[in-house]
Write a structure and sequence with these properties.
Elements lengths: L15 H15 L6 E2 L11 H14 L15 H12 L11 E4 L2 H7 L10 E5 L3 H9 L6 E2 L4 E2 L2 E5 L17 E5 L11 H14 L2 E5 L25 E6 L1 H4 L7 E4 L5 E2 L2 E2 H12 L5 H10 L2 H27 L4 E3 L5 E5 L6 H12 L1 E2 L1 E2 L10 E5 L4 H12 L7
Parallel strand pairs: 1-15, 3-6, 3-7, 7-8, 8-9
Antiparallel strand pairs: 2-10, 4-5, 9-10, 11-12, 13-14, 14-17, 16-17
Helix pairs in contact: 2-9, 3-9, 4-5, 10-12
The structure holds D-malate (MLT).
The site of D-malate has 6 residues, from loops.
């Protein structure tokens, strides 16, 4: 008789953003007149850059001709894209990562979720609290987290690293040593960033204890402060303890096109086994690669034109972030993030819980955000807004919030 993976039964009923989507659809159906502004899921709204569109068109033409048609992509991804990423994302920042250490995929979410497969189920994991839910949920599915404790809102075998206003939303090194450590900077959901010195402490800690850091750098393109590292490989010793996830979603507006990559350095060994060879084995077995046309579009992101156009998009979203943070502060909200990151993290007014504020904002202002508690218990009484809306919607959302019946005061 077939048996289900009972670990799935430990998960919340639905993924955070699916739950939000359902609530918003229900509200919209009951209030068809409402013009809802979505600043919840971090989904981009600006069209793809002209350099990307032109590369896509050229690649489509190639696929229509016998002499340039392409079938399956190489296991690691096309060399042209891996070379461009190694050069622009790493060598130009003084990091030593070779194209053969880069695995192209259809996005960082899949890689963040799948990478845990190359580790034994007896590894302990540490995550920030609050945290992007994929890290925890994918480990729950694999049976690595133990039972869910309703009284604490936490899984028993997970080491949670509190990220609160008191520590600037940057976690402290844990006393109990985890085997796998998930870090994401610039952070989703808080928008906090980590200095190179603090990140170096994590790298030293991981090397000293034999832990592996899974570093999600999906939002690195939003860093404007020169002192903030874009990659964990800017730290000395990271090649022997860290894997890094990168995404084209927020960097170049590829949320609908799908492209990302994961870096697994060849000198990263666990129990004498090269993780690079395990991830290569997994990639080759379960994945047939991102489409050729999308990889060509990714290559165009690194062209001079593509970089200029991409930076203009990021500047646009960061101007939105400035508007949101400024307006919320003026309305009396306690606000952080939104400076080197596209997420604004605010304290809910009075004693409102995150979900109460979600409902309140939806009903009073027809604005959708993300409840902080959906990212973990330490996110309770916080709320996330994204800078990825259009300028018009961002300004209107702030006007509506400013004129809501109950302010933050
Ligand atoms: C978010 O809103 O946290 C992100 O868009 C989710 C994701 O990138 O998968």
């Amino acid at each position: 008789m077939a048996k289900v993976n009972r670990n799935y039964l430990k998960l919340p009923d639905s993924y955070l953003f699916s739950r939000i989507g359902k609530k918003v659809r229900e509200y919209g159906a009951a209030h068809p007149e409402a013009r809802i502004i979505r600043l919840g899921i971090g989904d981009v709204t600006q069209p793809l850059a002209p350099a990307v569109i032109s590369a896509l068109q050229d690649a489509v033409e190639e696929m229509g001709k016998g002499e340039t048609f392409r079938g399956y992509a190489p296991d690691l991804g096309y060399e042209f894209l891996r070379v461009a990423a190694a050069e622009n994302d790493y060598r130009m920042r003084g990091c030593s990562i070779s194209p053969d250490e880069i695995f192209i995929s259809d996005g960082a979410k899949c890689d963040c979720g799948n990478l845990q497969e190359i580790f034994g189920t007896d590894n302990t994991i540490a995550v920030c609290d609050p945290v992007y839910p994929v890290y925890v949920d994918s480990n729950v599915m694999a049976g690595r987290t133990g039972e869910y404790d309703r009284s604490t809102g936490r899984f028993r075998n997970v080491i949670y690293l509190p990220c609160r206003a008191e520590n600037g939303f940057v976690p402290e090194l844990p006393g109990e040593v985890p085997d796998l450590i998930y870090l994401c900077f610039p952070n989703n959901p808080t928008g906090a960033v980590i200095t190179k010195e603090r990140l170096q402490q994590w790298v030293d800690y991981a090397n000293e204890h034999g832990s592996v850091i899974l570093y999600d750098a999906a939002y690195e393109a939003y860093i404007s402060d020169e002192k903030i590292p874009h990659s964990i490989y800017e730290c000395e010793g990271a090649r022997t303890c860290a894997i890094e996830f990168r995404s084209f979603s927020k960097t170049a507006g590829f949320t609908g096109l799908r492209l990302g990559f994961t870096v697994v350095p060849e000198d990263l060994l666990v129990e004498g086994v090269a993780l690079h060879s395990l991830w290569a084995r997994r990639h080759g077995t379960k994945y047939n690669g991102a489409p050729y046309i999308v990889q060509r579009a990714g290559e165009a992101v690194y062209s001079e034109e593509g970089k200029r156009q991409g930076q203009a998009q990021i500047a646009y979203y960061m101007e939105n972030a400035g508007i949101i943070a400024g307006e919320l502060k003026a309305a009396g909200y306690e606000v952080s993030g939104g400076i080197n990151a596209p997420y604004i993290w605010l304290r809910t007014p009075g004693s409102m819980t995150s979900w109460e504020f979600f409902d309140y904002l939806l009903e009073e202002a027809n604005v959708v955000g993300t409840p902080g508690s959906g990212f973990g218990p330490n996110g309770e009484h916080y709320f996330r807004l994204t800078a990825f809306g259009s300028r018009e919607n961002t300004i209107e959302a702030m006007e509506r919030i400013r004129t809501m019946q109950t302010g933050a005061q």
